[in-house]
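Project standup — Tuesday

K.O.: blocked on the structure for the chain from last sprint. Re-posting the sequence here as requested.
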Amino acid sequence: MKTYHLSSANRSAEHYIMFSYGVSLRLSNYLFNSKPVARDFFKHLKGTTQRGLTDKHLDNLDYFKGLGAYHIVSKRFVEAMKSYLKEDVTFHAMQVSGRNTSHDLYLLQVNKTLPIIKETSFDLNNDRVFSPPIFKKNHDISFLIAREENVLMNHIVIVSDEFVSLCVRHQLKINFRQTLTE
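H.V.: unblocked you, prediction finished:
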């Protein structure tokens, strides 16, 4: 099975959605370290864009990278994919401030964790990764989307061929980069 990284269809170097430091820290702790947040935390979740993301991008594209390993998707993505991904992800509604208007988007929380990275493929020194991870080619469990179960790399998300096919079938504007495999 081939696997892929999600990638924005925007080619600008400054194409991230950003959160304030305090929000980003709580978000990271919640998504990757299972730390609780206030019940109304997601009700007030707001992001801003770097200058490479225009209102037109926010209206027309279906996937955005959040600064800090966050994945953000459009309402079209949620409507097209929620029935396929209901067990694997949680969608959190959020507002993103563009240049001239606010946009309703969704933070993608990937709940499915699997050992997707070949354990011997990366070296850690002081919690820094020195070589790009090599992903397993064969998986014991079929999946559409998953993140690495190893706590040091659990921000890394990959998708399957089937996920890519579903996005193409629904004409979602997302790019994919094939992962390096063993």
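K.O.: great, moving the ticket to review. The chain has a mean pLDDT of 86. The longest strand covers residues 89-97.
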